[in-house]
Design a protein that fits this description.
By secondary structure, this protein is an alpha/beta fold. It has twelve helices and 18 strands. The strands form five sheets. A five-stranded parallel sheet has the order 3-2-1-7-18. It has a five-stranded parallel sheet with strand order 9-16-10-11-12, covered by helices on one side. A three-stranded antiparallel sheet has the order 4-5-6, with no helix packed on it. Strand 13 and strand 14 form a beta hairpin.
Length: 443
């Protein structure tokens, strides 16, 4: 709900991605709560460069903005279908996982209707007014005040340091730009996709389909020892519950950091369905011919330690085989970096950076309410969404926990239980046996 900019908002959101949009939706029907969410972009966009044909979500449709907290909300995916007159087509499709393009359309539908969401309003800085005990947020040349601020700026494409010498190269770019720059690959006769996660799998599959039969050599390369599928067993998925988040948060920081690296198959791998589609495509393409008939290479266990410009427009990848240590140089015409995303400290926080209690590695210290630890002089609530992988675990970027996290933040900001949340969400007991009296918690 909106209010005059001279009055302080109870909550001001920086950035409107799915997570802050979820918070805006859950706040919408709280009558005594004033909120404003600011987004620099002119409209809602969600990974537009990766909305390739056939790409599907990796979470069920119930992982929408609100349903896992309040399925009666008018901002549910099912209500979106009703407005779009698509309930029966969805019913007959019998698909639990949505096309990515439909998920983006659903979020845009909500963002355009939520009056607290303002697009084309870029936040340039966040200040703290000690006398008034308010945040002063400069956005679009105006100043807004707020008692609490939530950062939902998302993560940024990660470009490995091995490719530092190729910044600006016309045929080396992150997959976040894939659809926008796919035509730049037209002259390349050798294309390498780097990274074995879902984005890498979808890009490689799209190239298999769109470059079929034109003689282009397609290569899928990763340092991971196998193109392993994402863990999707029912009990495995219980790592994406509030129970596991609470357990993970209580662990020592060194243990948490180790676990995040070890649990890559829970949140960084490709879906078994996409991997099967890649295999099926190659099988169909080589009917009546030997396996090596197609100019395709799928190469796991190989790290790119450096990348340099080669003769002409080529790129030379200096590789090391993980198991044998063998080094080699691979020449390719283009590289699509499916190397993931990482949280970065937004520049808007520079004016209050000295008031934030950073950990020894310069990261946020985040409590279970997703509130950032600050110095005593800053008494307002500073919250983060999708910047707490190191404190809250693998569920941090997962859309399935988005509504729950938004409700936790809302309850904390409101100082009361606006949305009741379940005490237990998993059958798995993550803590040591002598702690099993409170599932998923460590004392």
């Amino acid at each position: 709900m909106s209010q005059p900019p001279t009055a302080p908002y109870d909550l001001l959101g920086v950035g409107i991605g799915p997570f802050n949009l979820s918070l805006a939706a859950l706040c919408d029907q709280v009558p005594d709560l004033s909120t404003l969410f600011c987004e620099a972009g002119a409209e809602f966009r969600w990974h537009p460069g990766l909305l390739v044909d056939g790409a599907r979500m990796q979470v069920p449709f119930l992982a929408d903005l609100v349903s896992l907290v309040d399925p009666t909300s008018p901002w549910s995916f099912l209500n979106y279908l009703r407005h779009r007159q698509r309930l029966f087509p969805f019913y007959f499709s019998e698909r639990f996982h949505l096309p990515r393009r439909e998920y983006e359309d659903y979020c845009r539908w909500a963002a355009e209707r939520l009056t607290s969401c303002r697009f084309g309003l870029q936040v340039s800085s966040v200040h703290w007014d000690t006398a008034e005990r308010l945040f002063r947020v400069v956005a679009g040349g105006r100043e807004f005040s707020a008692r609490n601020v939530v950062l939902g700026v998302g993560t940024e494409p990660y470009r490995p340091s091995a490719f530092a010498a190729l910044d600006g190269h016309l045929r080396v770019w992150h997959c976040a730009q894939y659809l926008d720059r796919r035509s730049a690959l037209d002259g390349a006769q050798d294309i390498t996709v780097l990274g074995s996660g879902q984005s890498g799998a979808e890009v490689f599959l799209d190239l298999l389909r769109t470059r079929a039969g034109d003689g282009t050599r397609l290569r899928w390369l990763t340092r991971t020892r196998a193109f392993a599928p994402m863990e999707y067993s029912k009990l495995g998925l219980e790592h994406f519950t509030p129970d596991y988040t609470r357990y993970f948060h209580a662990l020592p920081a060194a243990v948490r950091d180790r676990l995040v690296g070890e649990q890559w198959q829970l949140y960084k791998a490709a879906s078994a369905e996409t991997l099967a589609e890649i295999h099926d495509h190659l099988y169909q393409a080589t009917v009546g011919r030997p396996v090596d008939a197609e100019p395709v290479e799928i190469v796991p266990g190989t790290a790119v330690v450096a990348a340099t410009a080669g003769p002409g427009d080529t790129v030379e990848l200096h590789c090391r085989h993980i198991d044998s240590g063998t080094e080699s140089v691979l020449r390719t015409g283009a590289v699509v970096l499916a190397t993931g995303y990482r949280a970065v400290r937004p520049a808007v926080l520079d004016p209050i950076a000295h008031l934030i209690d950073w950990d020894e590695r310069g990261r946020y210290r985040v409590d279970l309410d997703h509130r950032v630890a600050t110095r005593p002089a800053l008494t307002g609530g500073l919250y983060v969404q999708n910047a707490e992988l190191h404190t809250h675990g693998v569920g941090t970027p997962d859309l399935g926990l988005g509504a729950h996290r938004a409700a936790v933040i809302l309850n904390a900001v409101a100082g009361r239980t606006v949305h009741p949340l379940p005490a237990r969400t998993a059958w798995t007991t993550f803590a040591a046996p002598d702690h099993a009296g409170t599932t998923g918690r460590c004392p």
